[in-house]
C-alpha cells in the first residue's frame, strides 16, 4: 500500500496539481515545452499530454507543426485546426482510406488553407494504382493556400482538381506525385507567374491526364517531370530556369517539345528524342547533361532506333562539362549484333559518368570504344547496376561473345588528363580487374580512385581494393566510401 501511495503522490507532483506545488517540468516556459512536444511523432500524441495538468491543456494548440501520419476521422482534424492558435509552419496528413479521401478532405482542407503559413504535406499510404480501378469519380479539391510556402501532394492516383482562381503569392515549391488530373485541368495555367509569382521548384511524378503541358514562368529555377503517362506535347518558357529533368514521359511516342530556357545549367532528357520535333533553343550555360541509355547489343529494331535517337541528341552538343549516360546489355546476347560502332560521336568532356547495366557480361570492349572518343577526360565515374541472384546465375553463358572484340586488351588509349575515377559496386571479378589493369596503363597520371560500396559489404570492398593496389601506380590513392542517397 505504501508503494501505491508513493506512486500517486509522484503523479500528482508531475501534474502540478498536488498541494506541494508545481513540478519543474511544468515550470518551464511555453516555448521550451512546445519544443518538447514537437519531438513527439504525431499531433494526437501531443494532444494526449493535456492530461498531465491544467498547465498543459492548451500547449498543443501552440505547436507550429501538426502531424497526422495516420489521419483520424476528418471531423477530428477539422476540430484540431479550428482550435489551434498558432500559425502553422507544417501540416502533415497521411491517409489510407482511398475511396473516402476526397470527401473526407473537404471537411478540413479549407481550415488548413486559412491556418497554414508554411508547408503542406498530404500522403496517400496506398501505393497501388490498381486499388482504384480507374477513375474514382470524386476529385481531391485543393483550395487556394494563399500563405503556403511549399505544397507536397502524393494522392495515390486519386483525381486532383486545382483551385480555379487565387494567387499563391508565397509558394516556392510544388510537388505533385501519383495524381490523376481531373477533367480539363490546366496545370500550366495554374503554375503560371500570374498565379504562382514566387514558384522556384516544380515536381510532377507519375501523373495521369496531362496530354499537353505548357509551363510559362519567370520565377521557376527547377522543373522535374517523371512518368507523365499520356504526355503528347510539352512547352516550357522559363527565362530563369537552371535545371530541367524529364524521364519516361512520352513512352515511346514521337516527342513534341519546345523548351525556351537560356539559363539552363542542368538538363536530364531520359526519354525518346526526335530532332525535328524537340527544340531546346540556345543553351549557352549548359554544363551537366544526362541522356537516355545506349543499347550495346540488339537487332535492327527498337534498340537500333533508340540508339540513333541517342546519337542524334548528343550531336546537338559540341562540348559539355559533365555527361551521364547508360550502357545497357540484354540478359542473353545470343546472336544479337554489337551496336557500339553506331556510337560515332561524343561531346568534348571533362567528366563522364557511365551507368553500366551489364547483367554480368564483360564490359571492356564497350568502355574501350567510349574512352577512345573522349581522351580529354579529367574525371570518370562507373556505376554498376546491382544484379539480382537470378541474373547472376543466368548471365554470360559459356561461349558468350560479350568480350569481343578483344582489341581493348592490347590497344592503347591515351588518357593524359584523367586524374580521378569513382566506381560504385565494383565486385572484383576477373574481368573487372582486367579492365582496371588496362585503365592504369591508359591513365598514367591517375591520382585518386574512390571505391563506393552500395550493395556490397565493406569487407568485400576492402578485398577489391587490395586486388587493385597490386596493379596501381604508387602515387595512385585508392579510397573507400559508403554510398549515400545524396550522391
UniProtKB/TrEMBL annotation:
What's a Pfam family in this record? F-box
Q: What's the domain of life for this entry?
A: Eukaryota
F-box domain residues are 25-63
The UniProt entry, under InterPro entries, shows:
F-box-like_dom_sf, F-box_dom, FBL15-like, LRR_dom_sf
Name of the protein in its database record:
F-box domain-containing protein
Amino acid at each position: 500500500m505504501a508503494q501505491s501511495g508513493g506512486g500517486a503522490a509522484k503523479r500528482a507532483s508531475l501534474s502540478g496539481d498536488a498541494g506541494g506545488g508545481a513540478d519543474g517540468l511544468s515550470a518551464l516556459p511555453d516555448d521550451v515545452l512546445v519544443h518538447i512536444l514537437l519531438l513527439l511523432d504525431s499531433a494526437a500524441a501531443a494532444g494526449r499530454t493535456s492530461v498531465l495538468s491544467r498547465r498543459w491543456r492548451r500547449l498543443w494548440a501552440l505547436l507550429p507543426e501538426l502531424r497526422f501520419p495516420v489521419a483520424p476521422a476528418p471531423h477530428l482534424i477539422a476540430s484540431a485546426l479550428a482550435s489551434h492558435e498558432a500559425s502553422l509552419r507544417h501540416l502533415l496528413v497521411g491517409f489510407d482510406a482511398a475511396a473516402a479521401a476526397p470527401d473526407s478532405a473537404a471537411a478540413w482542407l479549407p481550415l488548413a488553407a486559412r491556418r497554414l503559413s508554411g508547408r503542406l504535406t498530404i500522403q496517400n499510404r496506398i501505393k497501388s494504382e490498381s486499388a482504384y480501378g480507374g477513375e474514382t469519380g470524386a476529385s481531391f479539391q485543393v483550395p487556394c493556400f494563399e500563405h503556403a510556402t511549399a505544397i507536397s501532394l502524393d494522392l495515390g492516383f486519386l483525381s486532383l482538381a486545382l483551385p480555379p482562381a487565387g494567387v499563391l503569392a508565397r509558394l516556392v515549391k510544388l510537388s505533385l506525385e501519383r495524381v490523376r488530373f481531373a477533367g480539363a485541368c490546366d496545370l500550366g495555367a495554374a503554375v503560371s507567374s500570374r498565379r504562382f509569382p514566387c514558384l522556384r521548384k516544380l515536381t510532377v511524378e507519375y501523373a495521369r491526364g496531362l496530354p499537353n503541358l505548357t509551363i510559362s514562368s519567370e520565377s521557376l529555377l527547377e522543373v522535374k517531370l517523371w512518368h507523365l503517362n499520356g504526355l503528347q506535347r510539352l512547352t516550357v518558357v522559363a527565362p530563369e530556369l537552371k535545371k530541367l529533368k524529364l524521364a519516361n514521359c512520352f513512352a515511346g511516342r514521337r516527342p513534341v517539345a519546345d523548351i525556351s530556357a537560356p539559363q539552363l545549367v542542368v538538363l536530364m532528357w531520359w526519354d525518346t528524342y526526335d530532332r525535328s520535333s524537340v527544340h531546346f533553343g540556345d543553351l549557352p550555360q549548359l554544363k551537366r547533361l544526362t541522356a537516355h541509355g545506349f543499347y550495346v547489343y540488339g537487332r535492327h529494331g527498337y534498340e537500333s532506333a533508340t540508339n540513333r535517337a541517342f546519337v542524334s541528341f548528343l550531336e546537338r552538343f559540341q562540348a559539355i562539362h559533365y555527361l551521364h549516360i547508360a550502357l545497357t546489355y540484354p540478359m542473353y546476347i545470343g546472336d544479337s549484333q554489337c551496336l557500339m560502332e553506331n556510337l560515332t560521336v561524343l561531346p568534348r568532356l571533362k567528366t563522364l559518368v557511365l551507368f553500366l547495366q551489364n547483367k554480368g557480361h564483360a564490359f571492356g570492349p564497350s568502355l574501350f570504344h567510349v574512352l577512345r572518343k573522349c581522351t580529354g577526360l579529367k574525371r570518370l565515374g562507373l556505376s554498376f547496376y546491382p544484379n539480382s541472384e537470378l541474373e547472376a546465375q543466368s548471365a554470360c553463358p559459356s561461349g558468350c561473345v560479350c568480350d569481343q572484340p578483344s582489341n581493348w586488351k592490347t590497344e592503347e588509349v591515351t588518357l593524359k588528363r584523367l586524374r580521378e575515377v569513382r566506381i560504385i559496386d565494383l565486385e572484383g571479378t576477373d574481368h573487372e580487374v582486367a579492365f582496371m589493369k588496362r585503365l592504369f596503363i591508359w591513365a598514367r597520371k591517375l591520382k585518386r580512385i574512390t571505391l563506393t560500396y552500395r550493395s556490397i559489404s565493406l569487407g568485400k570492398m576492402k578485398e577489391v581494393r587490395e586486388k587493385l593496389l597490386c596493379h596501381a601506380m604508387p602515387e595512385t590513392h585508392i579510397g573507400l566510401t559508403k554510398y549515400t542517397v545524396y550522391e
